[in-house]
């Protein structure tokens, strides 16, 4: 058989069982291997050299722990049942451990899928009559005194009696009514047979005292270990004499696994959950109402982020030495946005995740808007929203943690380190996906939603039975009434920890999605459903993310209010904006007037201070009159015209410069009025000339002091020109949005999977193909399958290569690359010259050239793979 005809994944002979996980992987097709590498991407980092290495990596502790953590509750319960079953176990044995003696149709229906999941992830291998859990998983899930089983079961009779004297075992047999044997092995087998025989065990327990049964009931669901004194009470002595409790250490006893399974009616778990709990709706609204509410929230989200960045436009709060915002600055930001501190932290973190703000990196480091913020402001409202929504969906930074403590008991601050949680994108995407399964307009129950998430990914530190086991101390426990026949306990509903991370992430997701306008009144909106096409992490192709965001934006755009080009002026010196304003209008009005209230309509108030601010920015009175007349749908009120003219008439009448500071005015009577005013005493003014006053205060202080007295001074330069106080926006250098912290290796795409599987198959071909002995003066045995690299002299290597070029036969070589990495390859030499061999490499599936001095040895391939 040639190399091209021989395939390592050829099916084994009929009826043959795989002897290892590597053999089972070798029998899988490419689709099955691709599914395995997608489910466990850590196995492909780096790409294994062959299937044996892949199987070895699949059994490492870190990889198995990661795989177990990603199982749903019933698949994990299935793995735990296999951990306490005989190795190997038959399918019927596994089914009995999960369904119990009475059987459970739901378990019977769900078990094939759970077992297929475990097989697909290479946690279980073997045929149905010889199921094997990988050794590492069995060690992680099997019971021991140091690490009790998640099922609450103790060791088997064989394990518990391993250190017991043969005489003591024979005494237990006699007391239990069994015939004695000649050796300990048969004695243990006889005792095990008794405990696994339902009828004989029932007869034995019928003779047990009630308080002894009570002790068993306290241990049956775990933990199975208890403490006893040197002189046990009669109820304990009865159990010890019959092996229903076995000593494991001085003062410690354990309930054998076989006894516990009888008392549990054959079940390994108190509560088995073959099906996920349903997400229960608690309210239903018309889809149009949901979309309108969500669109209103989306508009508010845009306005809030704009207001935040406008507040930090000239430079925001200082960066703490350890990074992040101080508590005081977060409070100030919350007050400016008129929200609570946790909500302010969310908006700050969202703007940071979207790349709209960052630290400026200067010596006096402060937070400020980035250049991307100015580009973002020019986008249509729907596109600005999709930028925020997709940043939130893929971000690993978690604003809900702000104010908490890290592992070193340090306070977690907004924009600071320690806020990344790699599970956040997956949880957010999953929560929205579950919302999409409900009828349109239905809002879910938060408790049912978190219960579903816990079924899909059980929290760490919890067990599938999830009832807190009682610590058993048999020698001190008070006897309780017990039935002579041990009754089957009722399943207990799982109660996952209320403060586990996924629960908190799910609840934060519900509130944050509402604030962002992805949901409305708790129900998923139409544009929110479209956004679900976006991948949960930033590691997936950006085209998919952009396409989903674009669809969501198109659905949201008609629901957002169109920007207005007008306001309504009122006689009480206010202006009402009945909706969002066009940006030039909003910017100018923000300088000319103060925002008095926000909401569906924004109310602006004109004051002498706000008008003076517009004049300081370089506007003239005529400019302000023309601006108001152009953008008001109502006539400009006379009081507003008078206010502008009055402030403009006095604006700049007084001039302030640097003397350290001076005041000059052509009207000496006005200067006399200032000197006579008691409020000017703090400025320490004195007259230098009829039209000039000198001050010991600096120009800024003098300017503020006179304005507080009711005057409208203007600052001037050294040349006597009026200084225009136009705010200068502070921007950071170009910054990129923070990269999400991945939750382990990224899921490989289709191209990488195809290349990796081809490389693994080729490497497996090279390592498993049978080979002839290498030519040598003295005969040497043929290398074993997958053995060490062949060793031949340089002359032998060259002669074998040249002969293979003439015959066209493939060869097996050992090769060491420039980095010192050794590998085995199957090549078909084409040309040998100049110290190099050019050959078709079956391992790499391409033509390559190898230096002869790096080939450690060569061997011909055997004709018969057997």
Condensed summary:
With about 850 residues, the chain is α+β, with helices and mostly antiparallel strands.
Which runs of at least 5 residues are low in confidence (pLDDT < 50)?
1-14, 462-498, 537-541, 776-787
Strand order in the largest sheet: 18-19-17-16-20
Largest sheet features? 5 strands, mixed
Indicate the overall shape: elongated
How far the N terminus sits from the C terminus, by CA atoms, comes to 11 Å
**Overall number of structural domains:** 6
Helix content: 40-55%
Arithmetic mean pLDDT: 82
Radius of gyration, rounded? 39 Å
- How large is the count of helical segments? 33
Counting DSSP E segments of at least 2 residues, the number of strands comes to 25
What class do helices, strands and sheet pairing give? Answer: alpha+beta
Q: How much strand? A: 5-15%
List keywords for this structure.
866 residues, alpha+beta, 5-stranded antiparallel sheet
